[in-house]
Design goal:
The chain is mainly alpha-helical. The protein has helices spanning about 10-20, 35-40, 45-55, 75-100, 110-125, 125-145, 145-170, 175-190, 195-219; strands spanning about 30, 60-65, 70. Pfam families: FCD, GntR.
Amino acid sequence: MTFKAPDSLSEQIAHYLAERIIRGELKPAERIQEQKVTQALNVSRGSVREALLILERRHLVTILPRRGAHVTELNEHNVRSLCTLMSELYILLGNAVAAGRRSDADLLPFLEIQQRLQAACERQDIRAFVEDSFAVMRAAYPFADNPYLQETVENLQPAMSRNYYFALDQRKAEMNEFLELFANLLAAVVANDQPRIRQVLTAYCERSCLVVLGALVTD
C-alpha cells in the first residue's frame, strides 16, 4: 500500500486501521501489533505508534502499559454512553441549522445527502449509508460555527460509525427507519421547531442504541 499527502503518514495509517475496525475486520479486544502493521504497510514503527494514539483519541483502541493496543470492546455500557452523548451533540447541531438557515438554499446540502442515503439504502450499501449519515453532521458545522463542538464530534464519529456499521451489517432493514427519522428531522428544522428537533434526534439515538444492542445479542 502506498500513502500520499495531504494527510500525514500517521493520519493515513490511522484511517486505514479505523476502516478495518469499523468494518469488523479487526475484532473487539483484538490486539493490534505494531510490528505486524509496520511490516504490512512498510512504514516506520514510530508512525504506527502515532497512528495508534490517534485511534485511542477516537475511541477505537485502548493502549495499556506492557499490553499494547487493543481494539475497544463493544458492550452495553459503552454503546449506551456513546449514544447518550452523541444525542446531545446532534441536537446542538440540529438547533444551529434551524436557527441559522436564511433560505431554502441553505438546506440543499442536506437534501442532496438525503438522496444519497436513499440510494445507498436501495443498494443495501452499508458503507455509503454510514458515511453519508455523518456527512449530515459535517454539513451542519458551518451553522454551529463552534470548533470545540466540531472537534468533539469528529473524535467520536469513528466509534459511532463502528456501531452503525456493526448493527446495519446484521439488520440491513433498519436503514429505512433511519431514513424516516431523517425526513422528520428536516421537517422540524424547516419549521425551526427546536422541541421537535430534540424529540426526533433523541428518538433517533435511542433507536440507534437499541439496534446496536440487539445486534450485539445476536452476534
